[in-house]
Amino acid sequence: MAQIVIISGSPAAVSRSAALSAYIREKAEASGYTAEAFAVRDLPPEDLVYARWDSPAIQEAQAAVAEAGAVILVGPVYKASYPGVLKAFLDLIPEKGLSGKILLPIATGGTVAHLLSLEYAYKPLLSVLGAREFIDGVYLLERQLAYQGHQLTFLDAEAEQRLLAAVEGLLSRLQQNQ
């Protein structure tokens, strides 16, 4: 059982979201926590589209979320909100499935115009699923990050510090809750 589940919501195989997920997982594990990361894009598309609750892949992903004490969502901002593939997965989480968990939403985007998507798109959806304990979300501009595969390089030290502070806040809260 992983203490932390990191969900990459990008539909792309190679993405900032995947690189950020790997980076965060490494930081969590270096701090002594168990972390599991998965990409929603790797779940069978037909299971997501047809809401196949009984799919083994969906049930495995749901179980990972159910057993974790903290959930980190990482995704790009598309059309001022989260990607549809991420929403399709979140629709399959049982009602109140995020209750009692610490949530950290992280979004990337091309402009600061989408900064508030964490507040008006992510948080309301996660709240409907029972989330009440949030670490302040982190919005990163695409120009602040470079990636090659799952290797992430920060091009802006302030952006890296904001992300690290949020992750450390989540780890601290997780330790308090244990």
Helix % is 40-55%
What is the average per-residue confidence, as pLDDT, rounded to a whole number?
95
- Shape from CA axes? globular
Ends distance: 14 Å
Task: Sketch the major β-sheet.
Answer: 6 strands, parallel
Q: Which series of helices and strands comes N to C?
A: EHEHHEHEHEEEEH
Strand tally is: 8
Discrete helix count: 6
SS-based structural class? alpha/beta
Strand content: 15-25%
| Low-confidence sequence ranges | none
Radius of gyration: 15 Å
Keywords: Flavoprotein, FMN, Oxidoreductase
Protein name: NADPH-dependent FMN reductase
GO molecular function, one term: FMN reductase (NADPH) activity
Pfam families: FMN_red
Walk me through the structure.
The chain is an alpha/beta fold. Helix content is 40%, strand content 22%. The protein contains 6 helices and 8 strands; from the N terminus they run E-H-E-H-H-E-H-E-H-E-E-E-E-H. The protein has helices at residues 16-30, 45-49, 56-67, 84-90, 117-128, 157-177, and strands at residues 4-8, 35-39, 70-76, 102-109, 133-134, 138-141, 145-148, 151-154. The strands form 2 sheets. Strands 1, 2, 3, 4, 5 and 6 form a 6-stranded parallel beta sheet that branches. The longest helix is centred in the C-terminal third of the chain and has 21 residues, at 157-177. It is globular and about 45 Å long.
